[in-house]
Design a protein that fits this description.
Elements lengths: L1 H11 L1 H5 L13 H13 L5 H8 L6 H4 L6 H8 L4 H17 L24
Length: about 130
């Protein structure tokens, strides 16, 4: 996991792009970047639910490099993901797509689908 975190931080500037995310909460105790990183690692580590990643986050030092010291609960992740500003999220995803295209990881098809979806149901690991 340490190598993966180092790679996405080096290639995509992951921690810097996480700092650009914001949501509608006033004076949040848990930063938006921690919430989004937790949701990202839920998908990246193929956990079946937010509750599964929450147990991983409770281990001291685990995923602390990118999620941060203040780790969100599963309920907080679900609630805050619906409040994240879509403009800042689109900007981050557009920059990542641009980097992938420059590295020839994406084809030149202008109709290629590039999207992220967060669903409240946890029936299957996709």
């Amino acid at each position: 996991m340490r190598r993966f975190c180092g790679y996405i931080d080096k290639v995509f500037g992951f921690t810097a792009s996480l700092r650009t995310l914001c949501d509608t909460r006033v004076g949040p105790q848990i930063p938006t970047s921690s919430v989004w990183a937790t949701a990202f690692f839920t998908i990246a580590t193929r956990r079946g639910s937010l509750n599964a990643i929450e147990s991983e986050l409770r281990v001291p030092g685990r995923l602390e490099r990118l999620v941060g010291r203040d780790k969100p609960s599963a309920d907080t992740v679900g609630r805050v993901m619906g409040q994240i500003d879509s403009g800042s999220l689109r900007r981050m995803l557009r920059e990542n797509n641009h980097r992938l295209r420059r590295k020839k990881a994406l084809d030149e098809n202008p109709w290629a689908l590039r999207f992220a979806a967060v669903d409240g149901h946890e029936f299957f690991s996709q």
